[in-house]
């Protein structure tokens, strides 16, 4: 299989500018480039939208406000009034994941989806997890450890449940990372596979259009689905981040 | 899969941390609070507007009630004055009626008295004439004229 038809080729990391800090390789890659593009788009969106905040918002401001309201709703529902301080964090997570997801949907050979790399999603999930731990221990001290002790349960049973609670807690960043990465990767592989079908069947004998059109139609439908998934996964990431934060803020 | 190549991990994670830190500390921290303040100000303004509208409505209601009360008291006053005027005029009419009744009564009594006197006088004259005629008739028949007193009593008995 040549590299042009390899569905994994789109995830290849290419070094744009080699860089090393303290002997550690932190080269500027295409992944980093697309993260910065996402950052630039989000920054433009936010800065233009809040440049001159007005009582009656213009289009940009209304768009930013809509997104802000959405995140505010998620945080309010899951954390409550104490979650107000974490709205910027959840907002950042949401817009960053959303921008990275959507940038990958550009139907261009050079486009890259940072969130299709587990390194990126895991780093983001670990940031969220670290914040949850810090918030938990700062707010409740060592009392935060009672989170692992199932409430209102007879102690012999709780003794068995506790290890499960511990494991399910520490596995959170990984499930959070893998969910996003797997969704993005699977979607893009599927698009690429059907893309190769279009080429392969399109050059197939006497009836190229008949055979080529079918996978093309599938790809169009898949693109719509992938747009939906890009949005839903960003929402799920932000939602789970706020649910995890809630555990640390409002200890049961 | 390029995703699972260990060499790809550290550079991407480092750049994600950089990008996310810039996003959170520089971009979001400088823009979102401004938006939040605007939204709060808008909410407050709307609440304030609703409040002043409520106050204006209360004031309007109060004025309406005042106006209604004024109309009602004016009506009551007018009604009272009307009743007063009615009783006043009724009293005046009654007094005038009584006065004219008394005058009429006096006149009727005087008239009655003069009538009675005239009647008595007429009756007396008729008696005298009848007695005189009866005495004349008796004189013509018997040749002797009866005594005046007899003729008078006989005439009075005959006239009833």
UniProtKB/TrEMBL annotation, chain A:
It comes from the Bacteria. It is a multi-pass membrane protein. The keyword Secreted does not apply. It is found in: Cell membrane; Membrane. One of its GO terms (molecular function) is proton-transporting ATP synthase activity, rotational mechanism. Keywords: ATP synthesis, Cell membrane, CF(0), Hydrogen ion transport, Ion transport, Membrane, Transmembrane, Transmembrane helix, Transport. Its main location: membrane. The chain crosses the membrane at residues 32-51, 85-106, 118-138, 158-182, 189-211, 217-245. Pfam families: ATP-synt_A. One of its GO terms (cellular component) is proton-transporting ATP synthase complex. Belongs to the ATPase A chain family. HAMAP family: ATP_synth_a_bact (MF_01393). Key component of the proton channel; it plays a direct role in the translocation of protons across the membrane. This is ATP synthase subunit a. It comes from Stakelama sediminis.
Automatic annotation (TrEMBL), chain B:
InterPro entries: ATP_synth_b/b'su_bac/chlpt, ATP_synthase_B_chain. It holds the Pfam family ATP-synt_B. Keywords: ATP synthesis, Cell membrane, CF(0), Hydrogen ion transport, Ion transport, Membrane, Transmembrane, Transmembrane helix, Transport. GO terms for cellular component: endomembrane system; plasma membrane; proton-transporting ATP synthase complex. The chain crosses the membrane at residues 12-32. One of its GO terms (molecular function) is proton-transporting ATPase activity, rotational mechanism. It comes from the Bacteria. It is a single-pass membrane protein. It is found in: Cell membrane; Endomembrane system. HAMAP family: ATP_synth_b_bprime. Component of the F(0) channel, it forms part of the peripheral stalk, linking F(1) to F(0). The b'-subunit is a diverged and duplicated form of b found in plants and photosynthetic bacteria. PANTHER family: ATP SYNTHASE SUBUNIT B, ATP SYNTHASE SUBUNIT B', CHLOROPLASTIC. Belongs to the ATPase B chain family. F-type ATPases have 2 components, F(1) - the catalytic core - and F(0) - the membrane proton channel. F(1) has five subunits: alpha(3), beta(3), gamma(1), delta(1), epsilon(1). F(0) has three main subunits: a(1), b(2) and c(10-14). The alpha and beta chains form an alternating ring which encloses part of the gamma chain. F(1) is attached to F(0) by a central stalk formed by the gamma and epsilon chains, while a peripheral stalk is formed by the delta and b chains. This is ATP synthase subunit b. It comes from Stakelama sediminis. The gene is atpF.
